[in-house]
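Priority: medium. Attachment 1 of 2:
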């Protein structure tokens, strides 16, 4: 069951970086819809509230968790309107369209933008009256950054409204609200020795002058990220750019650098700098299809390859507030023309998995540990309203949700010192089978690698693989037979974790996708190939 909450937190002061910042964050529970389909009951109350927010403000910025949600919200907010009141803004829209949207909001010609993290920072879109977050942000730092887009002037109050879409999302939003107020954001951990970026740096340096290899290594180490760069790693990257991967010559690996073994010098080959210009940077190439206008060839944006596979000629979809009809599909491009239809679907992008970090996961676990012992304490109910900024109805609802969890499992709530293992005596959709739900609360950054290692360990012991579905709060294991929690957790330990993880990671789709992104940044896969 999904209960709608409008989250709003009262104003207080957040201290970070030696500065005081005022926030206006409120929490109000909205009314439940009647018992119809999920789509009929879930969105209309939210969209009505979104339109009221847009009407009362001069400019409003909505943040969504994914590009698919961004397009879907924009489509629903504009439904029935003579002219669009909200425009979409995300990384798959062409930069020309994004710039137009930013300019319209800044000049006052547009009242609202629905965006992903593409507008978290670094872009001037003028003064904002309010920021609305649909679903909780992926981290505390992202929450601070997003809410801070409103009231960006000195001394102004940043107004933010959170709309979680299910009960557990409501818990995470409440935890993030308190953390924003206290300025308790995640520790920044700079990337050390990024070898894919090093490849770009080496080609850039060798493209402007001939370097002695030793001098090149010493100069690279004057940059802080590479101050501890190992010489063998530097030599491997240099040889890879010269056309050798490790100690093997790869025919498909086009050399970018020439190494003179006699003089011990390195220089860029012809065309290498051009590859840096067209393929450089750290934004990954996710293999999207280019979306182009059929008549002009103008770039409109990018589509997920899985959406394109499911699409057909003549199909209509909405992209960036404009309905489009598919006219032609090639091996890497989709050609469209504007359509005149009242209803059409929004596209989707699959490569948008958020892995919650350990810092926020620990905060959620601490909240549940306190709740486990204080659910019946009237003082704790009052603290939900003061410390977590929940209104009385919302505080009552979240308490009911946690009490229901304890009742269903007959066990304490999961928290830092307690991993709850739930046995479900049926498969997905009621099919025969056994499901094991490991309520770890560790966050995706830990749950996903643990699930990979668990899969490898199970195959090593029983000779076949498991179906495992990791998320931020739990890992669901589909079993052919009963297995105890002790047996499951005994499969992975400190001694075998790394070899198990290596064995499964290298054959996983997750690794394959990240390897392609890495190879693109290292100039092994250019945008021309």
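Attachment 2 of 2:
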């Amino acid at each position: 069951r999904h209960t709608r909450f409008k989250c709003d937190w009262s104003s207080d002061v957040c201290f970070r970086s030696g500065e005081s910042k005022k926030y206006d964050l409120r929490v109000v529970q909205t009314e439940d819809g009647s018992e119809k389909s999920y789509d009929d009951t879930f969105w209309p109350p939210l969209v009505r509230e979104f339109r009221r927010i847009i009407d009362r403000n001069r400019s409003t910025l909505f943040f969504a968790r994914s590009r698919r949600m961004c397009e879907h919200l924009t489509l629903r907010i504009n439904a029935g309107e003579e002219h669009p009141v909200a425009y979409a803004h995300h990384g798959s829209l062409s930069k020309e369209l994004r710039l137009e949207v930013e300019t319209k909001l800044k000049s006052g010609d547009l009242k609202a933008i629905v965006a992903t993290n593409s507008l978290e920072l670094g872009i001037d879109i003028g003064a904002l009256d309010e920021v609305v977050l649909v679903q909780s942000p992926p981290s505390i730092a992202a929450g601070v950054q997003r809410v801070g887009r409103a009231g960006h002037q000195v001394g102004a109050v940043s107004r933010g409204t959170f709309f979680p879409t299910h009960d557990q999302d409501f818990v995470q939003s409440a935890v993030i609200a308190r953390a924003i107020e206290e300025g308790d954001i995640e520790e920044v951990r700079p990337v050390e020795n990024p070898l894919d970026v090093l490849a770009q740096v080496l080609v850039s340096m060798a493209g402007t002058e001939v370097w002695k290899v030793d001098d090149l290594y010493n100069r690279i180490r004057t940059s802080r990220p590479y101050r501890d760069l190992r010489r063998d790693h530097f030599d491997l990257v240099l040889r890879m750019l010269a056309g050798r991967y490790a100690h093997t010559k790869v025919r498909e690996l086009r050399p970018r650098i020439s190494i003179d073994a006699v003089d011990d010098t390195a220089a860029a080959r012809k065309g290498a700098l051009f590859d840096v210009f067209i393929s450089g940077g750290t934004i990954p190439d996710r293999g999207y299809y280019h979306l182009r206008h059929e008549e002009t060839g103008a770039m409109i944006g990018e589509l997920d390859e899985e959406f394109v596979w499911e699409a057909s000629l003549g199909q209509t979809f909405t992209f960036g507030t404009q309905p489009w009809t598919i006219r032609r599909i090639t091996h890497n491009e989709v050609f469209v023309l504007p359509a005149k239809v009242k209803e059409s679907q929004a596209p989707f992008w699959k490569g948008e998995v958020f892995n919650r970090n350990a810092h926020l996961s620990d905060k959620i676990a601490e909240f549940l540990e306190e709740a486990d012992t204080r659910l019946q304490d009237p003082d704790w109910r009052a603290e939900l309203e003061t410390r977590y900024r929940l209104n009385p109805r919302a505080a009552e609802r979240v308490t009911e949700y946690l009490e229901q969890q304890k009742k269903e499992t007959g066990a304490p709530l999961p928290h830092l010192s307690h991993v709850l293992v739930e046995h479900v005596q049926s498969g997905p959709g009621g099919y025969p089978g056994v499901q094991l739900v490991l309520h770890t609360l560790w966050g995706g950054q830990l749950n996903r690698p643990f699930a990979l290692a668990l899969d490898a360990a199970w195959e090593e012991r029983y000779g076949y693989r498991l179906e495992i579905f990791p998320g931020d709060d739990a890992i669901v294991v589909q079993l052919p037979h009963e297995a105890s929690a002790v047996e499951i957790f005994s499969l992975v330990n400190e001694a075998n974790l790394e070899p198990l993880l290596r064995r499964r990671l290298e054959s996983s789709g997750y690794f394959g996708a990240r390897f392609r992104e890495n190879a693109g940044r290292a100039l092994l896969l250019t945008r021309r190939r």
